[in-house]
Design brief:
Blueprint (H helix, E strand, L loop, with lengths): L2 H17 L1 H16 L2 H7 L8 H13 L23 H11 L1 H10 L10 H15 L3 E6 L14 E4 L5 E4 L10 E5 L3 H12 L5 E8 L8 H10 L5 H16 L3 E4 L2 H10 L6 E7 L7 H17 L2 E7 L5 H5 L14 E10 L2 E11 L4 E8 L2
Parallel strand pairs: 1-5, 1-7, 2-4, 4-11, 5-6, 7-8
Antiparallel strand pairs: 2-3, 8-9, 9-10, 10-11
Helix pairs in contact: 1-2, 4-6, 4-9, 7-8, 11-12
Length: about 375
């Protein structure tokens, strides 16, 4: 079985079937095509091996479709006003569109990145930033590694609604990001205990001294092509995510932050040096390290430790345990306590004060920002 076929079969079970009837049908179609040596397989094999993944193929088609809104295929896409459910004609319609626009789709497959910039993830990072500020008692110099369009660098400016299991809510954040809907996330665990644990870190204003994003290919939130690509990465049926993205991009375009292009292993030292002496660098990653090579991730941890030996620093990681906190513990193959499955990420932190490193597990996060279990505790 080819790696591409395994990718699509896994995507069908773990992702598409849960929230996208269209992508469920298309994933089944592509899987069958790959098994039969069909034309879609030819489009995929023209791309580098690491690019032969479902999200990238479907986003490339989605992006091409934005420029062809009158296409027959658009009738299946709610994002383009379509209401037609997947049916027997979908396979032929999809294949025909891909082949008609093959050159453009192949270009995106060869050069594109799955830079989904989900602003709702800020609801999971916001208490981690509050926790870092409380631990260090200093303003934060935010440095995002893998920033895409930098939407998470505005975390203090969004409005949040933390929803507890008994129906109660806790509101937080400045709410100064005009046009961005309030970010709702579910907080798991007994309501009273969860609210008591979370409140101290989300009810006080964050003091942000500076903000900069690092990315191999940063996206300008004011650029129409960049906005269209991020829009294409949102699945067709996900109306609320699309509304949130568009509002956050418009806000980021009005209040731009610095985005630096380049390998973070080269640009991070300068970014840390650029944080004011009275503030503490707060380096953070969200669903980024999983896209790095094993060597790159090892280099990142080594660099963070070297920088933390030179000045006080906090590094927050939100990712699957084995490509996040597990890299710092040195036990990436060890099960993550409290993270019940592949759809959960671990929110962790490495804190360097006076040259001493201490690791913390802050909680568990559900994909795309929809849920949070908050329970800060030291590791080791």
């Amino acid at each position: 079985m080819s790696e591409a076929l395994r990718n699509f079969q896994l995507f069908l079970v773990e992702e598409a079937a849960k929230s996208s009837p269209l992508y469920t049908a298309l994933t089944t179609l592509v899987s069958r095509d790959l098994e039969d040596g069909g034309p879609i397989g030819g489009v995929l094999t023209a791309a580098p091996e690491r690019q032969r993944i479902p999200n990238l193929l479907f986003a490339a088609v989605h992006r091409a479709l934005f420029d062809e809104p009158d296409s027959e295929l658009a009738a299946y896409y709610p994002s383009l006003g379509g209401t037609r459910p997947p049916d027997a004609a979908l396979a032929q319609t999809f294949t025909r569109f891909v082949l008609e626009h093959r050159q453009r789709i192949e270009h995106v497959l060869a050069t594109g990145e799955t830079q989904t910039n989900e602003a709702l993830r800020a609801a999971q990072l916001f208490p981690a930033f509050g926790w870092a500020q409380a631990c260090t008692r200093r303003p934060l110099g935010l440095i995002e590694v893998g920033a895409s369009a930098g939407l998470l660098l505005h975390a203090d400016r969004y409005a949040y609604v933390y929803e507890f299991e008994d129906g109660s809510e806790l509101t937080a954040g400045e709410g100064s990001a005009d046009g961005v809907p309030a970010l709702h996330t579910a907080v798991r665990g007994p309501a009273d205990a969860a609210a008591k644990a979370l409140a101290p870190f989300v009810t006080k204003n964050l003091r942000i001294a500076s903000r900069v994003g690092l990315d191999i290919n940063p996206l300008d939130p004011a650029d129409p092509d960049a906005r269209a690509w991020l829009d294409a990465l949102i699945w067709p049926e996900h109306v609320e995510r699309r509304e949130r993205l568009r509002g956050a991009l418009a806000h980021a375009a009005r209040r731009p932050v610095r985005l630096r292009k380049g390998d973070a292993l080269r640009t991070l030292p300068d970014a840390v040096d650029g944080v004011a002496d009275n503030a503490i660098p707060c380096v953070f990653t969200s669903n980024s390290l999983g896209h790095w090579t094993r060597e790159g991730r090892a280099g990142f941890v080594e660099l963070i430790r070297r920088l933390g030996a030179q000045r006080d620093l906090v590094c927050i990681v939100k990712d699957a345990y084995h490509v996040g906190l597990g890299l710092f513990t040195g036990k990436p193959d060890e099960p993550a306590d409290g993270a019940p499955g592949s759809h959960y990420e671990v929110l962790g932190a490495a804190v360097f004060l006076g040259g001493r490193e201490q690791l913390f597990r802050l909680g568990s996060c559900e994909l795309h920002g929809v849920g949070l279990t908050w329970s800060p505790k030291p590791v080791g």
